[in-house]
Design goal:
With 251 residues, this protein is of the alpha/beta class. It is built from eight helices and nine strands. The strands form two sheets. It has a seven-stranded mixed sheet with strand order 3-2-1-4-6-5-7, with helices on both faces.
Length: 251
């Protein structure tokens, strides 16, 4: 069984996806709502898979001071998970440890593999709306024979990184992330495999990929990420061509 660690920030305006608010029609408040919607879909994908969901939140002492509020980060993330999943009896909610994302991911993976004897551990960030139960289970199958399985995303990023053995996580998520992760796996003497590419959302440019995919799947009657799709529909987000250039607009 793969422990799927979804790395989650409390969905607070200005803290989450700041570049998206700066480069898209969305305000900081709306961007926080969008992040929360994608995070919900990540929780669902992991919980419905054959793996074990670990909600790995960034605690208050690792947040910039201006984003620490009266509501603890743990409570905010736990409430979002509970509202999404209902029963959390089979869900682990634990804080991240480390000053950088590399360190926090490395600490989580290494602890689960070494101290808890987990068979495999996946690192997932809550900004990949098309992560599905099927993808998680497909990666788990690959992990039976390959120690490192990566999910490439647009612009050299990754949306999924899973391990049956630890690697050197120092700088492992340095851009281009997918290439660096593969190199660190190779340097550790480990074979590396991949699951299909999926987009992630970090900037307004990313919406030029995600929104048409979402609308196309809806038009075709295919499964869409529930909470992300509801947010997009509620805010009327679409991509149109103006003077031959794609642009994100609100209906």
């Amino acid at each position: 069984m793969t422990v799927v660690a979804v790395f989650a920030d409390p969905p607070r305006p200005g803290l989450v996806l700041p570049e998206l608010a700066e480069t898209s029609p969305l305000t900081e408040d709306e961007t926080a709502e969008f992040y929360a919607a994608m995070l919900r879909d990540a929780f669902l994908a992991a919980a419905r898979s054959g793996g074990e969901l670990l909600v790995n939140y960034r605690p208050d002492d690792l947040l910039p001071d201006e984003f620490v509020t009266d509501e603890p980060a743990a409570a905010a993330v736990r409430a979002l998970a509970a509202d999404t999943l209902g029963d959390l009896s089979d869900v682990r909610v634990e804080k991240q440890v480390g000053s950088t994302f590399d360190a926090r991911a490395g600490n989580t993976v290494s602890h689960l593999l070494n101290a808890e004897d987990a068979r495999s551990v996946a690192v997932v960030r809550g900004n990949a709306p098309f992560l599905t139960r099927t993808l998680v289970d497909s990666a788990a199958m690959k992990l039976r024979t390959t120690p490192v399985v990566l999910g490439p995303s647009t612009n050299g990023r990754s949306y999924y990184a899973a391990f049956t053995e630890p690697i050197d996580f120092a700088g492992a998520f340095t851009h281009p992330e997918i290439e660096t992760l593969a190199a660190h796996g190779h340097d550790a003497g480990l074979d590396v495999d991949f699951v299909p590419m999926q987009p992630t959302v970090g900037t307004g440019e990313d919406l030029l990929t995600v929104l048409p995919m979402l609308h196309a799947r809806r038009e075709a009657g295919r499964i869409v990420p529930k909470h992300t799709a509801e947010f997009v529909a509620e805010h009327g987000l679409r991509v149109v061509a103006e003077d031959g250039e794609p642009r994100v607009v609100r209906n």
